[in-house]
Amino acid sequence: MITINKKILITVLSFVMIISIITFSTSADAAYLSNSFISRYVYDLENEDDFSFTLIYDVGYEKKISTKNIFGKLNIEPRFEYDLISEKEKMDIKEAYLDLYFSNYDLRIGKQKLTWGKSDGLVITNIVNPQDYTVNPVVEFSDQMQGINGLKTTFYPYNDSFEMIVVPEFKETNMEESLITQNIPQGFTIDESEKAVDTNLENSELFLRYSSIGSKYDCEVLAGYYWNDTPTLHKDLVNKTVIPKHHRIASIGGSISTMAGPFILKGEGIFNSGKYYNQEMSQQELLEMTPQELQEEDGVVEKDQLIWMVGVDYSNEGYLFATQFKQEAILDYEENIIKDEFSNQMNFLVKKDFMRSKLNTEINFHYNINDEVLMTKPSISYDYSSEINFKAGANYNLEGENPKTDVIYLQTEYLF
Fold this sequence. Notes:
Structural class: mainly beta
Low-confidence stretches: 23-28
Distance between the termini: 31 Å
Helix content: under 10%
Radius of gyration: 24 Å
Oligomer: single chain
Mean pLDDT: 90
Strand content: over 45%
Order of helices and strands: HEEEEEEEHEEEEEEEHHEEEEEEE
Largest sheet: 18 strands, antiparallel, barrel
């Protein structure tokens, strides 16, 4: 009976949303409504059991606004999900914003996702949207990025673009709670009283980006003053508690890409000031501390960080080969910092389309050099028609330990 009620609830809410959108449209010619229904079955390879069987209903609503003084566009993208196995439903708004166009600049107000940088599948200068590490499987890379509520202003000097984004409401990384609790020392409890970031003008985030697309080079320069999406675990050694806190980060970086025959060369980097890292402390060090030192010590240290990436894409006879190398470096490193001074990653991608691009194949390898973890994400998709397409793939760990479960998925999408 509970399952039936849930299905009825989802169906009713879906129709209410559609009817509301249509009713809101004052002119049918000025509005566009798209629908996507996805059936996605996911199988758990580790436990040899069903992982999820999700029905996903996406609505895309776009309405142009044109008056004597205002020209713009309203975009709303709600999503409804229902898992037939766990009998859980989820409703979310992926994006919902208002675009306003003026002679010298544009405004975008509302919930939005932004993609910065030149890297594929790696996060370096894409600092605006916090990540969602609970997504499994990762069918589309953008599914891992959370939408943020903000105001984006875009200017167009010399045919380039300059973006300024103000985010008044902080949103943290979405992750499994176990990823935090596993780092809590034995005998300690967690105190989240200082984790929240109040929503006010002082705590707003600011991001800036200047982009230029030329005949030989594409480049961008960016800066940000924002909160670290992932909390740092501070320790109260006297009361034996762990206190998660978010800290301010100041960043400056950029990216560049250019073509050289069949090759695309790209680079990306960012300097982060104000990163906090946990320190390892021996029992002997704790015993030698005075009561005052124990009161002041919180087991973290502030350091600057440099992240950079170089990559190359090569196209030949319909094949795309791409590889990237990424490094995170902690500047002025101290030996008792738990994280390595240099963290290195590589990925390798091969793509090929067949049957006039109706059949798409792709395989992606990601290798964490420090932890010796090798993952692969193969996928194949077939566009049966303009309304129906099929996709299959896997998120599989080939070597080392990974917190995410190995899965394969089968997906059918119907567009209407």
